Amino acid sequence: MKPRILSLEQDYSFILLGARGTGKSTLIESLFRKKAALWVDLLDPDEEAAFQAHPSLLAERCQALKRGSWVIVDEVQRAPKLLDVAHSFIERQGLLFGFTGSSARKLKRGAANLLAGRAFTYQLFPFSHVELFQDKAHTDQENGLQRYLEWGLLPQTLDFAERENHLRKYLRSYANTYLKEEIQMEQLVRNLPQFRRFLPIAAQMHTKVLNYSKMGREVGCDHTVVANYFDILEETLLGFRLPGFDTSLRKQQTKAPKFYFIDNGIARALASQLELPLKPGTFAYGSAFEAFVIAEVHKLISYRDKDESLSYLRTKDGAEVDLIVQRPSGVHDFIEIKSAATVFPEDLRTLMAFTRGETQARAFVVSQEKQAKKIEHVQCLHWSDFLIRFWKGEL
Length: 395
Fold this sequence. Notes:
Elements: E1 14-17, H1 24-32, E2 36-41, H2 45-53, H3 56-62, E3 70-74, H4 82-93, E4 96-101, H5 104-109, E5 120-123, H6 129-133, H7 138-151, H8 155-158, H9 164-184, H10 192-204, H11 212-219, H12 223-235, E6 239-242, H13 249-254, E7 258-261, H14 264-270, H15 283-304, E8 309-314, E9 320-326, E10 332-337, H16 349-355, E11 361-367, E12 373-375, E13 378-382, H17 383-392
Parallel strand pairs: 1-4, 1-5, 2-3, 3-4, 10-11, 11-13
Antiparallel strand pairs: 6-7, 8-9, 9-10, 12-13
């Protein structure tokens, strides 16, 4: 198993959330299979049926366990009431529980208490470039970029190497499985045909500012339904909304957000674009590169577990900064993302204008230019150097 940079505490109960296929089961197998006193796999149809009908079965199996014993429950959203049972055993018997799940929405709606602070919550994403290549040379990193942009970084896709036919089949199957098992079986929406119409439109909005009313007209539903559908994408952990930047939280909430899927491969599968190669210099390539970098930063911020948040900035006249990393200290990183191999001063006018003379703003441009340089106060970094240094806290 390739090592993951997510660190799970070994002496405290946890809930590990993540979209399907991100490697949750593989990770906990590697960390807890030998130490777990009880293992419940709710992907097993018999186990799922038994625990759904009788959540108290977990109490029966836990009665004889010693204090400090580990109990692992895989895919707990299939029987969310088990969290209530676990809460009692954490309190009374000192057991340690590890849960995995792919739908925070199902857990919340299942009246589960999410252990009321008795467990840490983590999220696992598709592989990060930092996990795969932080010790590799530039040439290896460049060879991987095209693949990241077209096929994404779900663990299963790495097993197919360059077999594009296998990659297409897997990602199409992934999209269909999401519809059947996350949406249809878990009954997350009432109108499944309408949600099917929504998904490719949502995929086409990958990296774009959301207009719920316009999308509602395309889908054939009210704008509030579209907003709820994006809630579902977030709560089933397939994507995230990037709010507009403002130092006032109230004002920030009134700005239209952008939406990003957690993985380019997923977005391209849902948009039926897997047959279309991404060519450098095109709008589609630039958009995919932006999505890749922002998704990577999103992962790394989650993994390093600091009080940081992400936003973007756009003025009324259309000037834009792609990404802002906000911190409680007030020192924010303003990041412009360029897919070009060379960065010129004229490319950075907006970024410079927003950050020049601002002592609380650090300015970066992330591109494919191999040699680091500085243009006035803006640090220009190769995308891989930026991501690895960002993760290590070396910027």
